[in-house]
Amino acid sequence: MPHPSPFELPELDALERTIALGGRYLQARTVCSVDLPGGGSYPVRCITLGNPALDVPAVGYFGGVHGLERIGAGVVIAYLHSLVERLAWDSALHRQLESVRLVFMPIINPGGMALGTRANPQGVDLMRNAPVDAREPVPFLVGGQRLSARLPWFRGTFGAAMEAENQAVCEVVQAELLSRAFSLSVDCHSGFGARDRLWFPYAHTRTPIAHLAEMHALKNIFTASHSHYRYIFEPQSLQYLAHGDLWDHLYQQASAQPERIFLPLTLEMGSWLWVKKNPRQLFSRHGIFNPLIAHRQQRVLRQHQALLDFLARAAHGHRLWLPDAELRTYHHAQASHHWYGSRP
Fold first, then answer.
1. Which residue from 5, 96, 230, 245 has the fewest beta carbons nearer than 10 Å?
2. Is residue 5 part of a domain?
3. 44-85 pLDDT tens trace
4. In the chain, where do the E strands start and end?
5. How many CB atoms lie within 10 A of CB 276?
6. CATH of the domain at 280
7. Is residue 191 within 8 Å of residue 69, measured between CB atoms?
8. Pair 96, 316: CB distance under 8 Å
9. What pTM did the predictor assign?
């Protein structure tokens, strides 16, 4: 049982209130606990709802990987809270949950969030910590480094096991997502650029993933059903390469079972737009990664709910949009042209 910490964590308080509100509809557990250097600890929580049977699809919602990016955790908690409130009256949601599993880990790095750092309390960047090495040169430091935990983007000591927080994510993903024939996930981040982006693997290589056709089909149904969408949908490798990407690692784990489909996405909310509207945020570490003005924060929490709800619906109806053999060839060709300049 985690010991009380002297650092306040409003996001964790909000999550626990939502769990209590959800009552019998939710299953919540502590996957691991994270100790702080000065004493005290925080739980890494996993919340599930919907049908636990392995023959139904699943969606995973993740946030708080980087402690400074509190808005990512907020977006995931806001969506979970919305679902809990709807369970009181939305019969369509109840029917949907009979045929889909929803999995939430909103605060993966509570220690870093409490300390106000990107890394976890051990100084390790969780998104540079997986056992995946880039095949091509990466940006200095940003792409991951093993020089020192005192520098940002530290990958961890060579040969060491993944950090406890990442092991917790892997445990949940393997049990709840990779055990099913079809699953999706979205990991909510902030801080890159002035546009909101939806990234998919790979980050460690420019080689396309095996399920490029399925990613393109997912993009198509999203853009067709959301005429005023704001996202740039692309492989992360179009922006930069990096060592140790956790979702690259988990996608590779899923690929060991070719009969299963796992499509992981990363929502990268463009925080430069918030800074542009409120330049004083540049003088705050949190301001570079999060909207600080209350009404703007509320707007950000609202505007991504449609995306998260879409993913639940897409998983529920995946048999209707996944391409067959003929359409798969078409989608692969279209995706190769769109994202890789016709490279097959």
1. 230
2. no
3. 999 999 999 999 999 999 999 999 889 899 999 999 999 999
4. 27-35, 41-50, 58-63, 101-105, 182-190, 196-200, 231-235, 261-269
5. 11
6. 3.40.630.10
7. yes
8. yes
9. 0.93
